[in-house]
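Changelog-linked ticket: 3-methyl-2-oxobutanoic acid example.
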Amino acid sequence: MSPTEQAPEAQELPVIRIFDTTLRDGEQSPGASLNTAEKLEIARQLEMLNVDIIEAGFPISSPDDFEAVRQIAGIIRHCTVAGLARCTEKDIVRAAEAVRHAVKPRIHAFCATSAIHRQYKLKRAMEEIVKISVEGVKLAKSFVEDVEFSPEDASRTELPFLTEVVTAVIEAGATTVNIPDTVGYSTPDHFTRIIEHLFAHVPNIEKAIISVHCHNDLGLAVANSLAAVKAGARQIECTINGLGERAGNASLEEVVMAIKTRADVFKCRTNVNTRRIYPTSRLVSTLTGLKVQRNKAIVGENAFAHEAGIHQHGMLAHRSTYEIMNPEDVGIPASKLVLGKHSGRHALHDRLLQLGHDLDEDRLNAVFEQFKILADRKKEVHDEDIEAIVSELLDEAENQRTWEMVAMQTTGGTGVLPTATVKLRNTQTGETVTDAATGDGPIDAAFTCILRLTGVDAVLREYDLRALTGGRDAQGEVHLELAVNGRSYRGRGRSTDVIEASALAFLSAVNRAVAGAAKPLPEATNGDV
Ligand code: KIV
Ligand code: ZN
């Protein structure tokens, strides 16, 4: 039996629930903000991946977050859809409203329990924390049957107090109690002790599922999650590509493949359809703009690449010499198909599905149209080009484009003054405007024109240019971030001309800023209970 084949008795193993928080904790990754259309696309993909629970967002944090959770709750049929809430009435009511139409709704309430958080953040005594938590769970329970509670910063909470809180919230009706390592401080031994302690000292523990939620500040999130499973936890909270606050959360693909590949050690299984792992990882990376590092376990470009001659020789003799998993088991296509101008809609549709995009008819038509335009300009259209087309489309679906690029001309080079002339059209009034500027380079000059023409006052915070594929006709893709009136707006643009890609990315961020100026500021979600 190859190491990746599951033993026949695998179906009898206990199931570890996979709680995906890519759309909530993952979306809190610096630079990873997603619009509603993108979140819906990811949620659909997570359903195909067959995760058990999708944490769709933090409804109180902003009207956009609320709307995304509400819409996801409306389309997801097989997974539980959870909304996060602090233990306050307004948070819980808002979360309840957002998940109301889910087939399987869950409210995930949390309250910090560690001495550090009690003293500095909440300024509350232990008894008050217990009361707030219990009341929060009871209120959540009045809306939904499925209530999860998290004692935030549990791994730095005194064990007797953690035991008291966990007992109290189960008594109040929590059906899942999640133990977060909020700051990624724990180690596998330490986490094992916490979970074992809870199993030994919480009298009503069999009435709830014990879950873990580990952050990766010391690079131990996956190891700590797996240690908790060995100690009796039955739910793991994790994210695609390990996205999340700071250094991220436990990576879903690593947790799932560790449990599958080492079923002999963990003696459990998950419901995840592992063949959807790679498409989901690609989708999340494309839509967040956060690239997966080459040597990332399971989904990195090098994860199944064999460079050393001795390894290649071994692989030719038998794959199991150097591979503990089959790439096909995680959905990595056996060969990379390149499309071109003669490829039809059917081939494009197939390719899109392999890349994690299950588009409706209208969107497929729109992508096909763009694909044909690109295929006329470039001989070969690669996966990265197709992904860029789709992400642009989702971006446009969501964001009103007040300004549209009509024409641009730039000059630059050695010994000349860089200049740009930009012509924009206001899509609401139909008016076209033109301006010219000089700059440190043609890109800087084009940015100056765009700011003057749109009247937006922005500071460029981040700028990243990369080639989407190899080859001299590769498209350049620019991701950038602007600060406008204290808020951040991201933009992306692509073209075989990197100056044009830069100007388009800049304009897309400016358009987001124009649309964002009309929206209320997000609710502050720190410092309160
Ligand atoms: O890291 C954390 O503690 C959290 C909780 C809200 C579960 O994200
Ligand atoms: Zn977290």
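Closing comment: Example verified and attached. The radius of gyration is 25 Å. The chain has four domains: 16-288, 300-332, 345-396, 399-516.
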